[in-house]
Amino acid sequence: MSAHISVSRGLVGILVMLACLSCAQGRSLVERQRLEVHRHLKRLNKPAVKSIEKSPDGDIIDCVHVSHQPAFDHPFLKNHTVQMRPAFHPEGLYDENKVASAKEAKPMSQLWHQNGRCPQNTIPIRRTRKDDILRASSIKRYGKKRHRSTPNPLSVSVDPDLLNESGHQHAIAYVEGDKYYGAKATINVWEPKIQQPNEFSLSQLWILGGSFGEDLNSIEAGWQVSPDLYGDNNTRLFTYWTSDAYQATGCYNLLCSGFIQINSEIAMGASIYPLSGYGHSQYDISILVWKDPKEGNWWMQFGNDYVLGYWPAFLFSYLADSASMIEWGGEVVNSEPDGEHTSTQMGSGHFPEEGFGKASYFRNIQIVDGSNNLKAPKGVGTFTEQSNCYDVQNGNNGDWGTFFYYGGPGKSSNCP
Fold it and tell me: Is 176 an active-site residue?
């Protein structure tokens, strides 16, 4: 009997020791993660000259000296001299103020402007918080898109299995078959409903080089609603870049080294307002991305007044020369399993045939040619994986040049 008790006590002791060891390992893992998150926050949140802490959307905007921004963590930018303005703007820049149309939309701003501005020689950076990083699938993947997030209209047909695997759906217009040195568009801005926090809805332009394999180069800019990335359902200005098809390089906004911002007025990833309403006033943003023919860097302009900054040419392989395709349009993530469809909306959440004031649009879409001239694109194609869920219709007229309406509600009686 005493031997049995002794063995039992021995087993209990071993179990207690194992439990303690497991607890210690668990604590060690949590501590390591905490330190890793802290280090990543320190890398992203540079020392601020001034902070604007009471933005209506809850953001904190740090005004960081232009020479201390995250771009300069890149080893190739250690001795880089910031280019404070492009050597050349594209010729034939469309003046939005000259159009006197009854359908004209109104200009927009950013919510944080209500509580202050950043001083000269600083740039506004949305502060990253611990919760932002913890929402990501991993610290390494924070601020990065999933693979296969670029639409490939050149694929003859869409494999349903591939569609379900990638989860990304699009409604776009595109041009290909030439060398392109930039693109422009004016896009009206909405607040599409998102079904699940790990889904998003965006409207953007893509500047693409290379194939749709592992070597794709992409520069992207537009507006998005992404609860996973930002922790809310606000509509936000964003940029993205990658030189290896979203694998290791690139990120959203300023969440890694690369894009060099020079503008003190506009914050990447910050909320924009006011928003378009169904059957009410329409508000839009204008985005231009072009390659400076002298320095070779890719510049971005927001509206008529704000040259935001540039992606240095060395970040890219194919785009170091030119783009081979331009795309404009909407994208959503469908994370529903077993062939079900998400009710996440694209654009306004309404189909293109509803037209102005109800559907989302891109107007005055243009490309930059080899002579640095902005031109209406020729041979514009359209593409969508499931037109019964999200669709696109293009057109042309005097006021809006080349344009298209796009979007949809996602899950419906026609999109089960």
Answer: no
At position 282, the amino acid (one-letter code) is: Q
pTM of the entire structure? 0.89
Q: Where are the domains of the chain?
A: 46-407
191, 199, 327, 331: the catalytic one is 331
Beta-carbon contacts of 371 under 8 Å, excluding residues fewer than 6 positions away, are: 91
* SS3 state at 13: helix
What token pair was written down for 242? Answer: 């990658």
Tokens at 172, concatenated: 């776009």
Burial 253-271 (b: 16+ CB within 10 A, else e): bbbbbbbbbbbbbbbbbbb
Average pLDDT for consecutive 10-residue bins of the chain (416 residues)? Answer: 56 66 68 88 94 92 96 91 93 58 62 94 97 90 81 66 67 96 97 95 97 91 97 97 93 96 96 95 96 96 94 96 97 88 96 97 97 96 95 94 97 91
Write phi, then psi, for 306 (nearest 5 degrees). -110, 105
Contact between 205 and 326 under an 8 Å Cβ cutoff? The reply is: yes
CA-to-CA separations, 27 to 20, 128, 148, in angstroms, rounded: 10, 25, 36
Taking Cα atoms as reference points, which of 407, 300, 369 lies closest to residue 83? 300
**Whether 331 is catalytic:** yes
Catalytic residue among 220, 327, 336, 385: 220
Which residues have a Cβ under 8 Å from the Cβ of 248 and sit 6 or more positions away? none
Which residues, 6+ apart, have CB-to-CB distance to 138 below 8 Å? none
